[in-house]
């Protein structure tokens, strides 16, 4: 499948093909939900998505998986080296870093604004020292770089039926919704790294602080205050999904099944968290294989419908301007 994707995208240079294949493996290994959704994209667009994910994964790993004995200063130096490599790659220079080689090529092909990469790296640097966020507004500033820009980087790859600036707020919101979902699901794991991504004021409104979270994580005991706070965090996240939802109809019809599938599957993580009683400090909630398969199957049906519609010539009615066909389900 990798060779078919690369051939369709017109990527022929052996080193570049290896770089994209490396990014695809990272996506398959670490981003199961998103990788599944990406399989619904037109084959020639998939390598670009893998490149964007692969670079983000590489940076995130430098922050979160430092290795034994590595200090914050060591991680900062590694992240700085990656950023310099990225800047050189975006200028058209040579690089030995596979994820940079692929993402720089993707940025050039799809004319992705380089500011998005700079904002992303700024959020990655903040993860080295920032361990909590007093308010939701503080968190939104962080997730602009860590998540919203991912949605904005994706837009040129996905294509839109309106000017990109019209779709951009919804794309940014979807990136944020995905990350807020991960924050809620991974509260326990993030706490073990010393970080709390849920806003402190939201937690405090329900009588929750770091000490209570740590106690619950360490003892395995539940507390109704924590359940209430996690419920509130889930509702906040669902609100961001509502901000993002109108953007689905603004995408190129052949890209909508991919993003709709990701939308449904990530939303389903919130359902799984709810069904687990918001026990996110004690276990990781997952979407069942049956639901994942059913959602993917629905996506395949939409892919087929979109391709048929794309091949069918449009015949506008007299006096009615043609509008791009929108998804109805």
UniProtKB/TrEMBL annotation:
UniProt xrefs under InterPro entries: Isoprenoid_synthase_dom_sf, Squ/phyt_synthse, Squalene/phytoene_synthase_CS, Trans_IPPS_bact-type, Trans_IPPS_HH
A Pfam family matched in the record: SQS_PSY
Family annotation (SUPFAM superfamilies): Terpenoid synthases (SSF48576)
Keyword match Transferase: yes
Stated name of the protein: Phytoene/squalene synthase family protein
Superkingdom of source: Bacteria
Annotated keywords: Transferase
Pathway of action: Carotenoid biosynthesis; phytoene biosynthesis
Cited Gene3D superfamilies: Farnesyl Diphosphate Synthase
